[in-house]
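Slide 14.
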Amino acid sequence: MKKKLIIKFLMLMIFVTAGIVMKSQIRCKIENYSTEDGLSHDVIRSIVKDQEGFMWFGIWDGISRFDGRNFITYKATAGDQSDLENNRIDIIKEDAFGNIWLRAYDNHIYRFDKKKQTFTSISKILGDNKIEFDLINIATDGIDSNSVMLYKKNPHIVVSSRKATLDHVEVFDMNGRLLAVAKNINSKEVSINVGQTNQVLIFKITSTEGTTISKKIIN
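Slide 15: predicted structure.
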């Protein structure tokens, strides 16, 4: 009699447990998208969800933005003035300002401005088209764009970091020409004499940990 009661109790526990498991299963809807739905290529190398909720895909035919219904593809086409030299995209990431950064198959890094819908070659900004990059690091600790401030103190530009210790700073014009360098800083602030240039300057700022960011200022 006791054995029968034990068996009945175990059977009841099994049914109760199975019912709980079935109820706790997450219900989800899976949808498949392909080139027939507007994706410009069926090989996807990288995916990121931006701050606005859009999905971005690095594909072998540029980058595609998906809003939940439609795809929009951005890429270089013959005869345009785009900096993008290779539409085969391997890596995409988003920075704190909403810019999309990508590494193409030619190992060059490009920045995509979502508002202007334009690509900018980082190698061209730095003035050396032979530069190749292994990966993209979006800084979250130590030095980052939100923790570094540039301000004028004529004829100097002061670079001030709230977090990281600065190692060196390079200053370029928009054509990629090197205008000034501050080395072995080992401080959170440095003042650089750039003169009265009356142009947009690009500051390449590197911390003692090796993390690098770039910031612009109109001098």
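Speaker note: The CA atoms of residues 144 and 182 lie 19 Å apart.
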